[in-house]
Automatic annotation (TrEMBL):
Pfam families: Glyco_trans_1_2 (PF13524)
The Spore protein YkvP/CgeB glycosyl transferase-like domain, residue ranges: 173-340
InterPro entries: YkvP/CgeB_Glyco_trans-like
The protein, known as: Spore protein YkvP/CgeB glycosyl transferase-like domain-containing protein
Species in which this protein is naturally found: Candidatus Nealsonbacteria bacterium RIFOXYB1_FULL_40_15
Organism lineage: Bacteria, Candidatus Nealsoniibacteriota
Length: 351
């Protein structure tokens, strides 16, 4: 049995009040259900209990005590020190899943990737960017669906059109236009009147909706707010070191690129019919109009919603094909198996 020391957030954005986070539901749960021996090191929980310094000490102690085949990291910020990661990498095989390289490459990922034995990225352009700065230990991967949790539930379709996610960027404007066009769309998530829902409730909604929306444009800060992030650090409003300003500017500009998110795979993984905005190399993962449906703009979205609400048979055929493609190719079990085989993790070389 492969032994994995898994180091990531346990709670949503590290806040216990928000419940378990994405990493816990998708990465930790998948690794456990794959049959690995997983030693869980939730660094957010450890920081709350012991502070940053002690947490880093405990992480190093845990790695040496457990002697894992792989140390699987999912960094969030600078909670774990570079020196801690480097020490662990000098003694064990390490891998970090870098999220949001589409925009965090310049001001985060490129400064950390060399600390690990291997790095994973979901951005199609990132491997070449890493290569240009001499970092070769990069694997192109992608978000996926945890099929151990996300499953079709059957039952009647109770919702015409649904969206689960926060009202970032231009999402509120899109929803307003849909409703003005006579479309009955329901929204859930922090910031919407209906509020947040549980993981189980979300999966139920995916199954019970005739149409599930995946609105990809989630970052559309105003000019003043975006500019402020170049010079100021988060809520503390501390002035960033001048050497970071160029990286922060490049990251701000990079947010204009649309990226694939986990929701792209979770909805089809529940057997749900999905209409999604276009995103980086999405065509490599699903066939348009056969497994998922893409929209170009709000007018196109309105037209396609109205069409597919009536075309029940076609809608169900597309949802079924999307579900089968997801199970075959786009689960975290499959992603992790591919990664572990590529980096030589014990127990995965013959898969």
């Amino acid at each position: 049995m492969t032994k994995i020391l898994y180091i990531a957030l346990k709670y949503d954005y590290g806040d216990p009040k928000r419940g378990f986070g994405f990493e816990h539901y998708n990465f930790y749960d998948s690794l456990v259900n794959m049959g690995n021996e997983v030693v869980y090191f939730p660094f957010d929980e450890a920081m709350i209990n012991y502070g940053k310094e002690k947490m880093n000490e405990l992480l190093l102690e845990t790695a040496r005590k457990e002697n894992p085949d792989l140390c699987f990291f999912f960094l969030f910020g600078d909670e774990i020190k570079k020196e801690t990661v480097k020490k662990i990498s000098s003694e064990f095989l390490t891998f970090n899943w870098f999220a949001d390289d589409h925009w965090r490459f310049y001001n985060f990922s490129r400064h950390w990737a060399s600390c690990f034995t291997w790095a994973g990225t979901t951005d199609s352009e990132a491997p070449e960017k890493y290569n240009r700065i001499g970092i070769k230990n990069v694997i192109k991967t992608q978000w996926a669906c945890n099929h151990f949790i996300y499953k079709p539930l059957g039952g009647e379709k109770r919702h015409d059109v649904s969206f689960v996610g926060q009202p970032h960027g231009n999402r509120p404007q899109i929803i307003e236009k849909l409703r003005k066009a006579g479309i009955n769309v329901k929204c859930w998530g922090k910031g919407w009147p209906a509020g947040r829902i549980s993981q189980d409730e979300m999966i139920k909604i995916f199954s019970e909706s005739r149409i599930n929306l995946n609105l990809t444009k989630s970052s559309k800060d105003n000019l003043i707010k975006s500019s402020a992030k170049i010079f100021l650090s988060g809520r503390s409003l501390k002035i960033n070191p001048p050497k970071t300003w160029i990286d922060n500017f490049r990251s701000m500009q990079a947010k204009k690129r649309e990226q694939i998110k986990g929701r792209t795979f979770e909805i089809p993984g529940c057997g749900g019919f999905m209409i999604t905005g276009k995103a980086d190399n999405i065509g490599e993962y699903y066939k348009e109009n056969e497994e998922i449906v893409l929209y170009k703009n709000t007018e196109d979205l309105i037209n396609k919603i109205k069409y597919y609400l009536k075309a029940e048979k076609e809608r169900e055929e597309i949802a079924e094909k999307g579900y089968k493609r997801t199970l075959k190719e786009h689960t975290y079990e499959k992603r992790f198996q591919d990664i572990f085989r590529a980096i030589g993790v014990s127990g995965y070389s013959d898969l």
